[in-house]
Amino acid sequence: QVQVVESGGGLVQPGGSLRLSCAPSRSIFSFDFMGWYRQAPGKQRELVGYIDIHGTEHYVEVVKGRFTISRDIAKNTVYLQMNSLRPEDTAVYSCNARDMSDNWGQGTQVTVSS
């Protein structure tokens, strides 16, 4: 069974930055993609973006230009760099390592507030 561990959440002021990390227990190249999702209170979980096996990044419109997904092959880790954070970015962020099934991490809280 795949274990996925996220880290890096916290409290940040509007306009600030955070970097989240996602480390699966198996090679990141064994997954079709590594995706970042978020769920705000009272809302459904939504896709933020993902990086596919070829290294191509995909983002939803609301985070384009602010968020960047990257990967460190040596550390077998995928990152979500979040800049220019807004209060509406507040959510629990989760990583999904997708192969033939979804492999979710435990989630990490991101709170954007002054």
Question: Can you describe this structure in just a few lines?
Answer:
This protein has no helices and eleven strands. With 114 residues, it is an all-beta fold. A hairpin with a 3-residue loop joins β9 and β10.
Question: How would you characterize the overall build of this protein?
Answer:
- The structure is a single chain.
- With 114 residues, the protein is mainly β.
- The chain is 0% helix and 52% strand.
- The protein is built from no helices and 11 strands.
- The strands form 2 sheets. Strands 2, 4, 5, 6, 9, 10 and 11 form a 7-stranded mixed β-sheet that branches. Strands 1-3-8-7 form a 4-stranded antiparallel β-sheet, with no helix packed on it.
- Strand 9 and strand 10 form a beta hairpin.
Secondary structure: elements and pairs:
Blueprint lengths: L3 E4 L2 E3 L5 E7 L8 E7 L6 E7 L4 E3 L7 E6 L4 E6 L8 E8 L3 E3 L3 E5 L2
Parallel strand pairs: 2-11
Antiparallel strand pairs: 1-3, 3-8, 4-5, 4-9, 5-6, 7-8, 9-10, 9-11
Determine the fraction of residues in helical runs and give it as a percent range: under 10%
Q: Which overall shape is indicated by the principal axes computed on the Cα atoms?
A: globular
Given the helix and strand composition, which structural class is it? mainly beta
Low-confidence regions? none
Strand content: over 45%
Give, in order, the helices and strands: EEEEEEEEEEE
Biggest β-sheet description: 7 strands, mixed
Please report the number of helical segments: 0
Radius of gyration of CA atoms, rounded to a whole number: 13 Å
Give the distance, in angstroms, between the N- and C-terminal Cα atoms: 40 Å
Mean pLDDT: 96
